[in-house]
Specification:
Length: 367
């Protein structure tokens, strides 16, 4: 299987399968001198970890990260410093239940990668999907935790803005609430929690699933990142977000809404600031114009389809071309979009870190 790597200078290769002994990643191109602790990486992994509420898969994985290379310990015994060599991280799988998938070993699940993998490779790992499983995304979150520390002053945050037909009220937006202990949805709107909870309970009890939209925002991004024509910052952000399992659409700024308004509404007007730099009066462009960052917050949204593994029987075929019905057993998220929030943050951080290093290498700016 090719294409297990993304990024140019900040380059991430992931490895491992959902039901194998472990998953992991190798981060190449991380500059020397970046200081962090294992707890910094673990904090992001814990936000993505399964089994934390009834609204996500009940697979029990501690997702404890082990850092195997590319760092040196400092005198305090906790702080690690990158050496500039490849950083390898590993997460052991401890709660696989491969027997849950035995019934679909020869069957193609509608909405899954079963048929397409089989058509390409002539075989597939039916135990949780192997490389096509969202289990792989834990390693991206680990890489993203490093990426956040490369750009000085960078802050990347994400939030769930809709589940199925239920949306948040943006007038209630609170970033502080997104990580609150009584918020299982990463929603920025406290009033949406009971609405989402009742809605998902209904979906879950019906043996079905539902999709979601996630918004990710990066602040502290310097102007000038990105390169026309084929190395645009928003192009790579979209590619990173689109690579996340179950994502079927990505938009930057006001995205598709831009097609519904006039030019005078859409263009981000400017006035001169006290430092001679522009002050933008809006951010419809989502912080990127001409493929290059403007210094405004970068705003992206991505749509996550409903989980394909559901208890409701669906029409399909088996490997022999026989018509069948498939009902998927096992532990599955009724809405995979919930745990996609920290994954989206990580992929946005990786794209920005990569472009920051490319910009520094080309122009000498960035220190």
């Amino acid at each position: 299987m090719s294409h297990n790597t993304f990024g140019h200078l900040f380059r991430v290769t992931t490895w491992g399968e959902s039901h194998g002994p472990a998953i992991g990643c190798v981060v190449d191109g991380c500059p020397p001198g970046i200081r962090f602790t294992t707890a910094d990486i673990q904090a992001d992994l814990d936000r993505r970890r399964p089994g934390q509420s009834r609204f996500v898969t009940q697979r029990r994985e501690p997702d404890k990260v082990k850092i195997l290379s590319g760092v040196l310990p400092e005198d305090d015994g906790e702080t690690l410093v990158t050496t500039g060599t490849p950083i390898s991280m590993m997460i052991e799988n401890v709660d696989q239940r491969s027997k849950d998938y035995s019934d679909i070993a020869e069957r193609y699940r509608p909405g899954h990668a079963d048929y397409s993998y089989d058509a390409k490779y002539g075989l597939r790992d039916y135990r949780g999907g192997g490389r096509s499983s969202a289990r792989e995304t834990a390693t991206r979150v680990a890489a993203g935790a490093l990426a956040r520390r490369i750009v000085p002053g960078l802050v990347v945050r994400g939030a769930l803005v809709s589940i199925g037909e239920k949306e948040i009220d943006r007038a209630n937006w609170s970033w502080d609430y997104v990580g609150h202990h009584d918020n299982p949805f990463f929603t920025p709107d406290p009033k949406s929690v009971p609405v989402f909870a009742d809605y998902l309970d209904e979906i879950r009890k019906a043996g079905s699933s539902v999709g979601a939209v996630v918004e990710v925002v990066a602040e502290g991004v310097p102007a000038g990142l990105g390169a026309p024509l084929y190395g645009k910052l928003d192009q790579d952000i979209c590619a990173n977000l689109m690579s996340i399992n179950a994502v079927k659409g990505v938009e930057i700024g006001n995205g598709f809404q831009a097609a519904r308004i006039r030019g005078e509404e859409n263009a981000d007007e400017m006035r001169a600031g006290g430092d001679g730099k522009p002050v933008f009066l809006s951010n419809n462009a989502g912080g990127v114009m001409g493929g290059i960052s403007t210094g405004q917050p970068i705003v992206a949204r991505f749509a996550v389809k409903p989980t394909s593994s559901i208890l409701t029987p669906r029409k399909s075929i088996d490997r022999n071309g026989k018509d069948i019905e498939v009902k998927t057993k096992g532990r599955h998220d009724p809405c995979v979009g919930i745990r996609a929030v920290p994954i989206g943050e990580a992929m946005l951080a990786c794209a920005i870190a990569d472009h920051y290093l490319r910009h520094r290498g080309q122009t000498g700016k960035g220190e």
